[in-house]
Amino acid sequence: MSADIPMIPFIDLKAQQARIRPQIDEAIRKVLDSGQYIMGPEVAELETELAKYSGAKYALACSSGTSALVLAMMVLGLKPNDAVFVPSFTFIATAEAVLLAGGVPVVVDVEEGSFNMDPEDLKKAIIDAKNDGLNPKIVVPVDLFGCPADYAAITEIAKENNMYVVDDGCQSFGASLEGKMVGSLADITATSFFPAKPLGCYGDGGALFTDNPEYLELMKSFRVHGMGTDRYENVRIGINGRLDTMQAAILLIKMSILAEEMQLREKIAVRYREGIKNVSHQVIPETVHSAWAQFSFLLPGDGKIRGKVQADLKAKGIPTMIYYPIPIHRQEAYAKYASKRAFPVSDMLAERIVSVPMHPYLEEKTQSYIIEAVNEAIEKA
Ligand SMILES: Cc1ncc(COP(=O)(O)O)c(C=O)c1O
Question: What angle do CA 163, 208, 14 make, to 5 degrees?
Fold first, then answer.
């Protein structure tokens, strides 16, 4: 990179912070003054706002997306031979949560177009799991890069097999499918407020969504060490899964600009999709508004040009990321849960995928610069 070309931020959290800094300072000051650092009033306020935004009856804040997934599994109750179906092309926490909650993750391949769980492969995985003596219990579609999975097809398969659907919406809070927001597409939804997410705090955070009041009560209990009517009466094995008050206060402010930020992300995605040529873009169904947590596409060919393209872009001050270089079935600690099956689409995606900067404050001239540089890099490679 030449010295006069500064690196473009991959996700520009500073630009967002500059916009809301006075409100953030005030909210943090309020929490500091109150001294209620854990379960202060902002947590309940945030839960009300999250439920409103998502259309779910109930929302419960928790300590991370991973803890949200673990809590969802704890609520549904996993026995040692219960199978939980997860896509192979996802962040590791989707499968990790299943094992932490005592179940068996069963890996399912994804679709070449949407990059999300393939309902046809799910059917095959259920048959295989049954043949292996497992009890199909939960399916966990992931809304990759912010695009909701095929809930109509997956829910139908889940119903036929008496299974629950848990949405790993850790990348998709703010997205919608057929007019329904993420949070209201599954029995339980888990999301993450990791700083780089579409709705991110300034630390770790997450939330759970459901319409079921019994699940809500169980979530509340599991979130605080399996508490009963009193915090020091423990009726089940839980975790410390609370969101702290400061993060809730920050999220409340960020929620006030989330809808606008979603529109800004969508506008940028449309430009990228029109401008970046000779790649395979993620297929977004017409009924979906993606949250565009990431902007990722498949490079042409077998992925061999990826290193060159990344180096070329880096030289022009454009950072890139690979989400994800190693699918679940190739991760050392998880390979045994997929040993008998093949996952050709996930393998192909892992070789060819690349992500470029995406955040609501990416200026038009920077978008044009990135589009041109990507096209040039691919042509040259
Ligand atoms: C698909 C998916 N699931 C789960 C998680 C875990 O969320 P957290 O980092 O908040 O624990 C993430 C976060 O990166 C994710 O992208």
Answer: 135
